[in-house]
Write a structure and sequence with these properties.
Structural class of chain B: alpha+beta
Number of domains of chain A: 2
Strand content of chain B: 15-25%
CATH topology of the largest domain in chain B: de novo design (two linked rop proteins)
Radius of gyration of chain A: 22 Å
Shape of chain B: elongated
Oligomer: heterodimer
CATH architecture of the largest domain in chain B: Up-down Bundle
Largest sheet of chain A: 4 strands, parallel
Distance between the termini of chain B: 60 Å
Distance between the termini of chain A: 64 Å
Helix content of chain A: 40-55%
Largest interface: A-B, 28 and 40 residues
Number of strands of chain B: 8
Strand order of the largest sheet of chain A: 4-3-5-6
Shape of chain A: globular
Strand order of the largest sheet of chain B: 1-2-3-5-4
CATH topology of the largest domain in chain A: Dna Topoisomerase Vi A Subunit, Chain: A, domain 2
Number of helices of chain B: 8
CATH class of the largest domain in chain B: Mainly Alpha
Number of helices of chain A: 7
Order of helices and strands of chain A: HHHEEEHEHEHEH
Structural class of chain A: alpha/beta
CATH superfamily of the largest domain in chain B: Recombination protein O, C-terminal domain
Chain lengths: ~200, ~250
């Protein structure tokens, strides 16, 4: 980078550029915006960044991101402790929580099997899931991985690992999303929707 | 000067994808005429996008692509062949990962192609979807891919002496890309042994059509030897370990 730019500024631009979806132009824009903003805002941002890593950890039960271990969901006695929904990412927990329908607990894998990208079962929290199912007397495992090739592969792998462990395995239904157009749906989705049709 | 084409319609096999921006997906696709290119499918992670489901990994889609500044932009996409069994069977899926990784590694971005790699890959996805034991289809793919990529191994004469190969056990040199006869074996390092039967299979793979190969029955130790030589040669040419191999081994052992 040009020598006309002071080092602290360059450092921040480079740090921003490492974030997903942010290129060098956006990184410079954000940096110069922060230079102009009042100190308290930049300090707040700095504190938030520091606390992000310092004060969060994985829940030792479900591997969601949490401040207290075990997390609020795992320590909630009201929730059904015999059902686990297996999701790829912590954000997927939020999506299921927003429905307000699901009362069980979760297990966050932190990714999906993707051999092309070098992500195999060992990089995910699958072994921990199997252990949990055996130790906690789980009755049902709902596999809520994304309905794509990686999510499907992950689901099938988990199925192999959990078969014979005396637990009921289910998978989220797949089909047409609300507000969509059948005309634009792909053949796989329409096939699934037909297979999973329900009586009215 | 002719104006550059603003948009083009193409068939595309989806090799790789990664999340990009808010709800977009960056796809690495293989096309018959434009070779391997990177395109972005805007909104493809949204549930209601018209592209969702049409830009799935290891499917063939019909795409309309606009030329963007850095990479193409998918304007329309419609899935043509889903290769559904690759998604429903862990082993087939694992092999699909392997063939896609090889196609990706052996091709260069934005280099126009004569459609041979595209045809080979789509035929291989088709075979992987149908056959009971995918291993022969994989060996056939490996040896054809080496042809297409310009790394065809020499299997009929010694790469040092150029004399015809005698019917006896030989050596294979990854560095020289071919068979080395026992007389010249001391001239090269990094040799691996290749039995006469394995060599016969390799030659058969190289010169015959898939229909002939599919009819073969090879016992497991011989197949393992052929697999080891081809994989060794491929890894040597790519200078890197293949990521998808571990997963295939993992599933085989279960």
């Amino acid at each position: 980078m040009s020598k006309a730019i002071p080092e602290p500024v360059t450092n921040l631009i480079e740090a921003f550029s490492r974030l997903p979806g942010i290129g060098p132009k956006t990184a410079s824009r954000l940096t110069y915006y922060l230079l102009r903003t009042p100190d308290d805002i930049t300090l707040q941002l700095a504190d938030a960044l520091r606390d992000l890593k310092a004060e969060t950890r994985f829940c030792s039960v479900c591997y969601n991101i949490t401040v207290d271990d075990p997390c609020a969901i795992c320590s909630d006695a009201q929730r059904d402790a015999e059902t686990i929904a297996v999701v790829e990412e912590p954000l997927d927990v939020l999506a299921l929580e927003r429905t307000g329908v699901y009362q069980g607990r979760y297990h966050v894998l932190h990714g999906a099997i993707s051999p092309v990208n070098g992500i195999g079962p060992d990089e995910l929290k699958i072994r921990e899931l199997v252990q949990r199912v055996v130790q906690e007397h789980i009755l049902e495992v709902i596999i809520a991985t994304n309905p794509g090739l990686e999510g499907d592969a992950t689901a099938m792998y988990i199925q192999r690992e959990l078969t014979g462990k005396g637990v009921k395995l289910t998978r989220l239904a797949r089909g047409l999303p609300v507000g969509s157009d059948i005309e634009y749906a792909d053949s796989v989705t329409v096939t699934r929707a037909l297979q999973g049709r329900s009586e009215m | 000067m002719p104006r550059p084409q603003r948009a083009f319609r193409t068939q595309a096999l989806i090799l790789k994808r990664r999340d990009f921006g808010e709800a977009d997906r960056m796809l690495t696709i293989l096309t018959p005429s434009h070779g391997k290119i990177e395109v972005v499918a805007h909104g493809a992670r949204k549930l209601t996008s018209s592209k969702t489901g049409h830009v799935e990994l290891f499917t063939c889609a019909d795409m309309l692509i606009h030329n963007g500044r850095n990479f193409g932009i998918v304007a329309q996409a419609e899935m043509v062949t889903p290769y559904q069994p690759l998604r429903e069977d862990l082993q087939r899926g694992a092999y699909a990962n392997y063939v896609a990784e090889l196609a990706d590694r052996f091709s260069t971005l934005d280099e126009p192609d004569d459609s041979s790699l595209f045809t080979l890959l789509s035929e291989t996805f088709e075979r992987l979807s149908i056959v009971d034991d995918p291993r022969l289809a994989i060996r056939y793919y490996e040896i054809r891919l080496l042809d297409v990529a310009g790394f065809r191994p020499e299997l009929n004469e010694c790469v040092f002496g150029r004399e015809a190969i005698e019917p006896e056990d030989q050596f294979f040199s990854y560095a020289e890309g071919g068979v080395v006869c026992p007389r010249h074996a001391n001239q090269s390092v990094r040799l691996t042994r290749v039995s006469l039967n394995a060599l016969k299979i390799l030659r058969h793979l190289q010169r015959s059509s898939y229909a002939h190969i599919a009819a073969l029955t090879i016992d497991a130790p011989l197949h393992n030897e052929v697999e080891r030589i081809l994989l060794g040669y491929i890894t040597y040419q790519l200078e890197r370990k293949l990521q998808s191999i571990d997963f295939i081994k993992r599933i085989r052992s279960i």
